[in-house]
Amino acid sequence: MSQSPASSPVYNEPNYLDAEKGLRSWLTTLDHKRIGVMYLVLTLVGFFLGGVFALLIRLELLTPGPTIMDAMTYNRMFTLHGVVMIFLFMIPAIPGIFGNFFIPLMIGAQDVAFPRINLLSVYLYLAGAAIALVGMINGGTDTGWTFYTPYSTTTVTTVAPVLLGAFILGMGSIVTGLNFIVTVHTMRAPGVTWMRLPLFVWAMYATSVIQVLATPVLGMTLLLVAFEKVFGFGIFDPARGGDPILFQHLFWFYSHPAVYIMILPAMGVVSEVVQTFARKNMFGYKAVAFSSLGIAFVGFFVWGHHLFTSGQSTFASGVFGVLSMFVGLFTAIKVFNWTATMYKGAIQVSAPFVYFMGFLYFLVFGGLTGIALSTVSLDVHWQDTYFVVAHFHFIMVGGTIMAFLAGLHYWWPKMFGKMYSERWALAAAVLVIIGFNATFIPQFLLGNMGMPRRYYSYPEQFWPLNVASTAGASLLAFGFTLILFYLIASLVKGRASGPNPWLSRGYEWNTPSPPSLQNFPQTPEYDRGPHEYQDGPAAAEVKHAH
Amino acid sequence: MNLLNEFLRHLLFLPQQASEWARQLDYLHYFVFVTAMLGAWTTLATATVFVFRYRRKHAEQSTPIVDPKPIHEAVFIGLPLVLFLAYFAIGYPQYVRLQTPPRGAIDVYVQGKKWMWKFAYPDGPNSTDVLRVPAGRPVRLLMTSRDVIHSFYVPALRLKQDALPGRYTQVWFNADAPGRYPIFCAEYCGLGHSAMLGELVVMPAAEWDAWVEQQRRGGNPRAQDGQPTAAEDVDLRGSIVEQGRRIAAVQGCFKCHSVDGSQHIGPTWLDLYGRSVKLENGKTIVADEAYLTRSMMEPNAEIVAGYKGVMPTYQGKLTGPDAAAITEFIKSLRTDAPTAEPQKGPAYVPVTGK
């Protein structure tokens, strides 16, 4: 579209998928698009494993007593589920796949700033994932993904390998973040000013800042735990003169911002999706862009809301409580602006848009339950119960995974040049949304009733709602499996999508689909912002010669 | 008000309210629930109306550029901010009240350990897993943990406080509804986390006074732990086997060891005595009196194959006679033990040829 070099660019190169063949060409590629596709495959394997663990947990909780496994296996299962979902899917997925693939396309660059470091991050992911998984399965780690001391430093199971794995995964996360920050600062094409930057790039930028600043603290903390476990340091274990609460402060100093590493990219994805499918420019572009930075900033000062019942000072709890409200405030600003974007729009209800609506609904309730939790006194009842479990699954599954699916369906034709079956996609979206509600709404009620989390067995009064939740989880699993099938089918025999099946005016659609090996034959130049639909196609679209 | 309270409490699946603080907290819960739902559904209904109202008419439809005026963003920021700060303004003082025990509260020392709760009253009685308190009088809990972090949680009081090793934390409550309420451990603490259950017994004040007095007079001064319920009082006239069963119950042995042969966190006691036990290090040992006593005092010295060394030591906590009584109790647990009932199976062992 609004590209204004005098002559139309000529794409005479093969697309990035066909440019080279063979496994070796993939394993040694420096192309940001291929690295994005590798991340897609790897993180989906992670998602699949984490999902299997989740199903086993839900099956075990189908009855109040032992159902299919013993207590130790159950404890290992929720540890695996948490570690795999967070470190192998939630944190790397959207940045690794869509960040890598689309940031250069969106800012008119040929690649990211450091392509070799980008490839390194894939191998760090592989190494970290392998060490963590093998370590957890061999050593039977049973600490939960939070590794709370002194449990983690005194448990009879092996903990060090998973800590090392998470440390290496953190390194991958840091270099990805660094790469994106430098790319956005230095490689924007002429005309891509900060105030025209696609909102996905803004969100990824804010995410990268958190990754670079917070992840080292996690690495340091995990190393200290490993030292304590292996060499007997007395940092966190009071029996050796340490302080177990110190661990919680250090851990959440990373892990709370890490929640925003997981949700900010999702917010970026849906900002693109809503503009395309409502055919509208973002209402309140600046508010949406700066609220991402606001979340990234405030997110560093809210970690103490995990410690309201730990005995931390009453004053500190008040400060952390009120600061946590601001995260909700920035999120509310985004929600209102996304909603207002649809006003006077031209809405096409396709699969990505259905996921966007799912995202909006779930984020609103996930966010408001977060506000309720940071209302300090209410947290005393809810802390460490299923209410918290339901709250963060509303954000992680209802928010991030809905947005991931919205992005996957929206950008699928861009990445592979193929369309999937819209009918199957709508059916799966409905299944996933119903299954999600059935899984997690009962968990809010279980939390209200007082069921603590990480419970292997439970008193009988919690039984009916647990059955409902397990039933919902099986629907959810069925929906995800369906998606996998029709997406693979579309790769094999899907019809060609054409360069821009959604008629989007996002900058990334300004190339063929799938993009050619070299993103742009000549540096593009932009004279208008992305997603401006006020005039007809003739004024905006630039036809590309092939 | 009462009717509304009961309606909303049931709607939200909240448990009974056993203290004024629990009631106050629920009122805030209702306020947050109702206002948040109103806000959420107003927003989402607007979004949904837009979806139907502004359907795309043709593929390349043009739309006007709509940018917000400052007033729009001010409303977007102002409305939620006012609402959120209102929640906080009500909730934080409640939290401060919970953190500030009144003078003259009854002190109870709480110790969490894998996987039981121990309660000690300064003027006498101790108990395991059962916390007795008088209705209508403030009680302050002083908590610590022997091993890892636990969290003392009574849903009926809407009360939760972590018990930390090497440190004391405190919390207080004033239960006003006599009854029995479950106590859970809310912080993950290992194999027996979900079995670390206790019971809060709120007694009418006069009954509680009488109970304390009775405990002080009749309590066994050398017992580390008292008696869970009146019915469980150690009867010194009972047989040594019966004493062993009671001591084992009081010490919480049954949280990990079954007496009916079923698998649990630790090996079952049924038919344990005299059996050849396979150990983790590959050796085999006969479970005699010496082995059983050693397992109580040095549980990690000989770990049974297939189990984890998670049992705490009872060195210094069980006296010689106590350990002996438990051993005798274990010895009595035999499937072939003579019973008073008539034999159900055949009286002879059938001879089977090859």
Would you give an account of this structure?
The complex is a heterodimer of chains A (546) and B (354). With 546 residues, chain A is mostly helical. Chain A has helices at 23-27, 32-60, 71-90, 93-107, 115-139, 151-154, 160-186, 199-231, 244-278, 285-298, 314-341, 351-374, 376-382, 386-416, 422-449, 463-493, 537-540. In chain A, α3 runs antiparallel to α5, α7 (160-186) packs antiparallel against α8 (199-231) and α12 (351-374) runs parallel beside α15. Residues 1-7 and 541-546 of chain A have low confidence and may be disordered. Chain B has 354 residues and is an alpha+beta fold. Chain B has seven helices and twelve strands. In chain B, β2 and β3 form a beta hairpin. The longest helix of chain B is centred in the first third of the chain and has 34 residues, at 20-53. At the A-B interface, α3, α9, α11, α12 and α13 of A face α2, α3, β7 and β9 of B.
In short:
The complex is a heterodimer of chains A (546) and B (354). Helix content of chain A is 66%, strand content 0%. Chain A has 546 residues and is mainly alpha-helical.
